[in-house]
Amino acid sequence: MQHLYHKITILITALVMSIACFAHEAEINGISYNLNKKTKEACVREKSKKQSGNITIPSVVTYCGIDYKVTSIARRAFYNSSDLTSVTMPESVKTIGSEAFSHCSNITSIILSETVKSINDSAFFGCSSLKTIALPKSLRRIGEQAFSECGNLSSIDIPESVVQIGKYAFIKCRGLTSVKIPRHVASIGEGVFACCPEITSIIVDKENKYYDSRNNCNAIINTNTNELVSGCMNTVIPNNVKRIGNYAFGVCFWDQENPASIILPDSVTSIGDNAFSACIGMASITLPKSLVTIGKEAFMENHFLSSIIIPDSVTSIAEGAFFNCVSLKSITLPKSLTNIGYDAFNGCSFSSVTILSKTPPEIPNLSFFDTTIDTLGENILQKRIDLHVPKGCKEAYQNHKKWKDYNIIDDVDLNY
Question: Strands across the sheet with 260-263, in order?
């Protein structure tokens, strides 16, 4: 009986070991891996145990007597490992997954493999202590928000191999001072360098077929569409630009002691969403007669902006376009305007608004009201604004369900 029990114990132990050796997941030296028995490849597993200090990912791990080559780092593998300070990757790693090191706020140094082809979306999002990173010559793709909010990143050298840079890839990298786009980059997403106020130089390689910095303009321009994708405080907008892209100048800094006056060329027909939002030191901007649309939050939170003339070509001003531009005192809206978005001028310091259209444009509530919360935080206090409209049109505005709440004065002489 004892002999039989001994045999059963051996069989059970052998069975457990056999099952373990065929497992798809394993923790080796404190790092969790997914193991592919067919390809003999290992991937640092999603939601691996939080790491701290300096770690070196091995090129090969051994499990149950079998060697596995480490080729990738999975999505969220080291997510929020806030005590991690440096990472060294082996030459075998080719892919870094989405959010792999996101919110590793104390990481200062990352050594990438020279075989990495893709840094996926948000891979290093919020690595706020990261100062430098050398991108390998093998790299093809930089994903969306890949280095977003890496506030201490002081420089970035984009290698010649890169063909795609995702939107917001370097947004809020406030330490960057210069940018160079190499010749093979064929796709750049919106807001790629938005909220990078220290950038003073932007250069696109002259051999790039898709983007350019024509006339040394210090900007990235889509060669085919003539859209200005990204600019900086030293940008001179060329005469043939047709569109200012989304977030093109978002949170751009000019000299506060000598506020800037921006002039857009007559070729511009559209200003994108957040194109000039929260800019510091922009006192005025001259909009061209070619302009048709102003995008969402295009000039939002421009506290220095004290003067703007909306040209007679504009048909639409999107929601929040001039939200909280606290220095704007008055504005004249053209006859061409047919639509004003929600909160378009909310928070401005208007005492009066002049509108030249005989037909009331469509607006939502609170497009112009200056709204504040009372001391108890319970009520919204609305300042009633004088609305100057063309003579003989007072009744039309009074009968409009949205304009009727304004103090309407029909004293505008369109024949003047």
Answer: 260-263, 282-286, 307-309
